[in-house]
Design a protein that fits this description.
Blueprint lengths: L17 H11 L6 H13 L1 E4 L7 H12 L13 E4 L4 H7 L6 E5 L10 H14 L3 E5 L2 H5 L3 H15 L3 E5 L8 H14 L3 E3 L11 H18 L4 E3 L7 H14 L12 E2 L2 H15 L12
Helix pairs in contact: 1-9, 2-10, 2-11, 5-7, 7-8, 8-9, 9-10
Length: about 300
């Protein structure tokens, strides 16, 4: 098993100063970003997006359309990078894999009884194995929040470790569903637990619960990654997901990553946005920078 420990002890997780976290987040939003830096930042944010469709009405046609957009964000603007990944349900992995053939875009699949996580471990492992066998490059799993909130930390630890093993060569993103964890102290505990159990990435949310990603929650998770890196030299990725729909907010997040973890995290291998609406807003802002005018949303697909 790809774990450094066989259990998690909450006594080793530091408490979170909520006032300090909120003050720091407020400062990140005051950084001045000049025109050329803004354009570069927007293109970087585009390259970090996991374009996502996770609805019961998803069809093969919708997934193929999403994959086309992932490879061709805006054909009228050369130089726009492709996104990092397309995220779908396991049954759509093979469709996405075929549609993305020849590109460097990964296919991510949600698994482990997403979004609730309310299923026996064997069901979660079968779900993961199926997604990997269909061709998923990345697995986004959800933790058992009920067990976590009951203080059954090692139950959650063991589940993550087992799913990590089931992933094989696929990367594992562990979704904490921070909107259900109630406190920043719990967010920090869940972050440490997931990292120690073998997560390649930690992720805020499924996008199905509000609040989803927020700057304070993301900062706490980034600090857990930073502290683990200082202790071990091992980098862990971060993915805020849900609620990040504007270019301005995405740039604030990139400032936070740079000032908390450093420039080496500012690439799609280590930081992702779980967002689809964000892509269109970035394209609108880039068109404004290029032409001086905003394009109507009618010029962009809704996928």
């Amino acid at each position: 098993m790809n774990t450094t420990l066989k259990s998690y002890d909450p006594r080793f997780t530091p408490p979170v100063d909520q006032v300090s976290v909120e003050e720091r987040c407020a400062r990140f939003t005051t950084r001045s970003i000049k025109k050329s830096t803004k354009v570069n930042g927007l293109k970087l944010a585009m390259s970090m997006i996991d374009l996502t469709t996770l609805e019961g009405k998803d069809s093969e046609g919708k997934v193929r359309q999403l994959c086309y957009k992932a490879m061709h964000p805006h054909d009228a603007m050369p130089g726009i990078p492709q996104v990092a990944a397309v995220c779908v349900y396991p049954t759509m992995v093979k469709v996405a894999k075929k549609a993305l053939k020849g590109s460097a875009i990964n296919v991510a699949a949600v698994a482990t009884a997403f979004p609730s996580g309310m299923a026996p471990l064997q069901v979660k492992l079968d779900d993961t194995h199926y997604a990997v066998e269909e061709g998923a490059d990345e697995i986004d799993m959800v933790i058992s929040r009920g067990k976590f909130l009951q203080g059954e930390y090692n139950f959650v630890f063991d589940e993550i470790a087992a799913v990590k093993e089931a992933c094989g060569k696929a990367h594992l993103k562990v979704i904490l569903e921070t909107g259900e964890l109630s406190t920043l102290d719990n967010v920090r505990k869940a972050s440490d637990l997931a990292i120690l159990a073998g997560a390649d990435f930690i992720k805020t949310s499924t996008g199905k619960i509000q609040p989803a990603a927020t700057m304070p929650v993301t900062l706490v998770m980034l600090e857990a990654i930073r502290d683990y890196y200082y202790a071990t030299g091992k980098m862990i990725g971060m993915k805020p997901a849900g609620g990040i729909a504007t270019s301005k907010l995405a740039l604030h997040y990139l400032v936070m990553v740079n000032e908390t973890l450093g420039a080496q995290w500012l690439n799609p291998d280590w930081f992702r946005f779980g967002a689809s609406k964000l892509a269109n807003d970035i394209l609108m802002q880039l068109m404004k920078e290029q032409t001086g005018n905003y394009q109507s949303l009618n010029y962009f697909s809704n996928d």
